[in-house]
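Many introductory courses stop at the sequence. We go one step further.
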Amino acid sequence: MTPGTRKVAVVGVALSDCGRLDAVTPYALHAQAARRTLADSGLDRSLIDGFASAGLGTLAPVEVAEYLGLRPSWVDSTSVGGATWEVMAAHAADAIAQGHAEVVLLVYGSTARADIKAGRRTAALSFGTRGPAQFEAPYGHTLIAKYAMAARRHMHEYGTTLEQLADIAVQTRANAFHNPYALYRSPLTVDDVLGGPMVADPFTTLHCCVRSDGGCAVLLAAEEYVPDTAKPPVWVLGTGTAVSHATLSAWEDFTVTPAALSGRKAFSRAGVTPQEIEVAELYDAFTYMTLVTLEDLGFCAKGEGGAFAAKGRLTIGGELPVNTDGGGLSACHPGMRGLFLLVEAVRQLRGEAEEGRQVRRAHGRPPRLAVASGTGGWFCSSGTVVLGRE
């Protein structure tokens, strides 16, 4: 087969245990997720010749691969925050298509919540004061404040309201209700969100993601291996990556994120339009991220995200189900959550989500097309992956 012409499929996905895990290491979560993903795929571990990991250890892919007993000949340790895993999936798909790898494992695990509870680390209020950040640090910018400033700018430019942002949290919680593994499942109201403690104006606590422990893994393989897999393949149809800025002073427009470029690339390469997508898994560390990513991916025009997301459109039975597991706002958020988006998108396309949160389209069929779009830093990076089933 001519290099570059091979199709690439996601052949295995799984979560490790997630939620509140006080007696487990992140390495163990990596191993648990990897084992479950291999079992899900039906393939033998000896076939894995590619490995991608970030966020753990000094030499992330080397140390974690050693812990898992793997000796890959293709590795990736790209680390661009929450978008890491969509970017890695794009790299892996390209490598497989070109014949540089055959079967690639992406795996993540974190005990972010447990580490804070045990005093092993502090909350990530800042990424540090070295490099370009030194010029902003004196002004007291915390990580969440940067997102809050962007949200305020969108409100100023387009009239987006607090109620519209809060409704995104309400709908995401409604999706989490049917997920037995979600950290929070009890229903919310807009008043609940608006009435919570203020964290960074305009964000109250329920505008912000949960902090949890957990991990997951995704296995990608060349099309030749699909006949040997245990589950129907989900094909990687198109990918796109982009970066925007490191400092706020270099960000030209607080209302436009790099998803505007990564999404356009992914949809073009997949040969589909946003309007054909039937389920979307979007990075949602904060409610504003969901709103602005919907705009930048082309689901609605710039400035219309608040109105577009209203009236239950993002719920399981809505016009465009978004974050069907409950997202980072309600289900889990152990740090770089982007890999969870791919896991959930694949499960939805396979039609194997739990009763009540499985998206159904015409004649009760599962969706055929999904998009997973991760965001890193404070809208610094983006990776978008379009997935489809036969």
